[in-house]
């Protein structure tokens, strides 16, 4: 096994980037998988992401966990706080009244859902984290970057594929 | 294209198609690199009027701080509050500010869920408006408290005395709802801003670069990041919309749950929510015009987008008008004599000027939005959007004050109560505080969402391509296609 | 611990008050009867209350601004009707001493964000000054407007030296920013209850009086324990056909003149007022 190397190609046209991805998918470079390809783009390109193998998103599962656990814990905590508060009786209302507790539970439902979503998203996006050394500022401007990780001896081959689709630039540790 | 009606043989009629170009929200010459350039420029050198606005806001805020310190030192008495009039302008303005925030969520969350793309250039500052109005509203909770230094009693925190907040109090619901809303909309604002912060990071220098680098958390726009980001953003939008509705409903329960005439109204929650959206929308129009001029956003805050915003404002204004009138109608038709007397007092008593002022500003003035000249003349529109918000502020004033002035118990009926300069000073200071924060935000952070405007441009390009390739045989009708002829 | 408490006492936590015979087994339920026919509007009750409960004298200007602190106030109304307006105008004035009604279902209690106001086991609506944050929601929701807020810092202004020496040592002097209200002279009740407890008995009827009841020259104010069926207050309530747990009273008997103020708001007050009688024949 040789060392892994990375190469980054920048495209101005999304269609060209798509063609490059299609060719990468159909190519027969030994040891290369589509999982090793990363797209970097200024906006979300669903049509390009489709060309990669399906990369599932699990955030909703955590959201579900949040909206189930948050309000139930919250309701129990609120009700037991009401029950253990020494001076309890107020305005003839029951000590553990449902309508107010439902209002608060509803808010906790949303709060825990939002918090779980945010936390799981940051974990899934691997943020905060370091940018890869090959990060190019133009992928936040108007270029689409295709980052391929492969074994060092295959890099020239992959570069050749990438170069066929009019990239504005190709750079990488072993590409030149 | 053609279909059977009552079993008649299918007629083969030649379908005539013609293209009517859709009104584009953005001009044709906006490209991705230009977007970065334009928006980043707003962080550098705004028009000089920015500094005028900022420093006047700072001055107003300082005066508000002076009034608050004066009140803090001497007691709430300096506000001329008294036994029936216990709330005064503080709670009225609290509702006003918390209402202002709701339209930001409407634009950023609801319009995101239904993919109304015209929101994209204007949602960022609206969402920021939400955050800052909530901060301003939270300020009024504090200002209003008799013992500001004990405000943490309202928070449920474990303590050795086993005392908790009173969960049956609408004020505690308020605190929970506002806390949830502030947390969620702040996270929503921040999360939606991360790709743009990365753009700032890639272009800034010095201390600002360090700030953006820290805030963008190392975003590099990978497919994995975008995929998760989109799902999370949509999920949060789905949480935020019902949250916004619940927040102002809960604020309305401060009144609807109580026994006072004019407050004990079943239709208060929807009435408040619509009032909130209404004042928020006109606030967004105001800020639209201001930002467009101050930061030279003419290419992004365009007339077609403003038109849509105005249409939405008008529709919401009409729903609010309906709910307001229906509230009066049910009171009038009902047999609660005290509530009836209160309604009559509002319209004819000491605060009749404010009542009819509200009717004029908030119910009659929106009809001027129907005039084409008004929609296209930004100076006039700016003034009208401010008048609408004056009307909405008066609405809150005339909910609070007349009810206290003529409540159930005749002995405490007061005539002609008027707030003192301290109250007015703090209210003015709150406008300064909001404007100051908002202007600072727009100077430090991109107030137009760059990546989403890029999405818009991308989609317009795709549409253009589809239009170019479209032909009568194609099954997929491109957007903007009208069918002529008969099928 | 709290969860088991919640489960064990679930039934009592879900109970609404007031209910029939709520104070059947309780030792005390403080209540009052005010006879408007006896009230001459002399304000002695108000003065007694100021002395007993360390109420701040706010001065003319602040009184005019509606910032007065009188826990009990004498309201003067002018009677309506032809006979009063034309024939006997001098008899039109009538007085109503207004103090906290100590409602069983008090509107002020559920709205307090911090639980500073709550219901005590002997049926009083109490205010914990140390807990109050001054949101004034209780006052906003009180239909009688008998809650008084410390708009100013009174300890410094109301009792200039040496007047602070006249303060009642049993009662807190409230600082600015808290709500206060009539307590039915709780300091007297507590002292009396403690004394009775030491002696191993319950308080006797009339053993403890509120300052206003004590000062009233015409004995218009009757104060006592409603839980004790034989107390004067309980008998008066019964004779006037007023039931604590009902919001609409049965007025079937001849000569019944007891009523509670704003009963239709379902507040279940603990003070019964006796209507004023008028004799126009004389």
Radius of gyration of chain A using CA atoms only: 26 Å
How does CATH name the architecture of chain B? Up-down Bundle
What is the radius of gyration of chain B?
25 Å
Q: Main sheet of chain B?
A: 2 strands, antiparallel
Q: What distance separates the N and C termini of chain A?
A: 21 Å
Indicate the overall shape of chain B: globular
- Count of DSSP strands of chain B: 2
In what order do the strands lie side by side in the largest sheet of chain A? 2-3-1-4
Return the domain count of chain B: 1
Helix content of chain A: 40-55%
Write the CATH architecture name of the largest domain in chain A.
2-Layer Sandwich
How would the global form of chain A be characterised? rod-shaped
Output mean pLDDT of chain B.
88
CATH fold field value of chain B: Formate dehydrogenase/DMSO reductase fold
- CATH H level, superfamily name of chain B: Formate dehydrogenase/DMSO reductase domain
What structural category do the secondary elements of chain B indicate? mainly alpha
Describe this structure in words.
The complex is a heterotrimer of chains A (176), B (487) and C (282). Chain A has helices at 14-26, 46-49, 59-84, 98-124, 155-163, and strands spanning 4-11, 37-40, 144-151, 169-172. With 176 residues, chain A is α+β, with helices and mostly antiparallel strands. Chain A has two domains: 4-56 and 133-172, Alpha-Beta Plaits; 59-124, no CATH class. A four-stranded antiparallel beta sheet of chain A has the order 2-3-1-4. In chain A, helix 1 (14-26) packs across helix 5 (155-163) and helix 3 runs antiparallel to helix 4 (98-124). The longest helix of chain A is centred in the middle third of the chain and has 27 residues, at 98-124. Chain A is rod-shaped and about 80 Å long. With 487 residues, chain B is mainly alpha-helical. Chain B has a single domain, classed as Up-down Bundle (Formate dehydrogenase/DMSO reductase fold), CATH 1.20.1630.10. Chain B has 16 helices and two strands. Chain B is globular and about 75 Å long. Chain B starts with 16 loop residues before the first strand and ends with a strand. The model of chain B is unreliable at 1-5 and 471-487 (pLDDT under 50). By secondary structure, chain C is α+β, with helices and mostly antiparallel strands. Chain C has one domain: 2-Layer Sandwich (Alpha-Beta Plaits). Chain C is 25% helix and 14% strand. Chain C contains eleven helices and ten strands. In chain C, the strands form four sheets. A four-stranded mixed beta sheet of chain C has the order 8-1-10-9. Chain C has a two-stranded antiparallel sheet with strand order 2-3. In chain C, strands 4-5 form a two-stranded antiparallel sheet. In chain C, a hairpin with a 5-residue loop joins strand 4 and strand 5 (125-127). The longest helix of chain C has 13 residues, at 186-198. The radius of gyration of chain C is 20 Å and the shape is globular. The termini of chain C are far apart. Chains in contact: A-B, A-C, B-C. Chains A and B meet through strand 2, helix 3 and helix 4 of A and helix 1, helix 6, helix 8 and helix 16 of B.
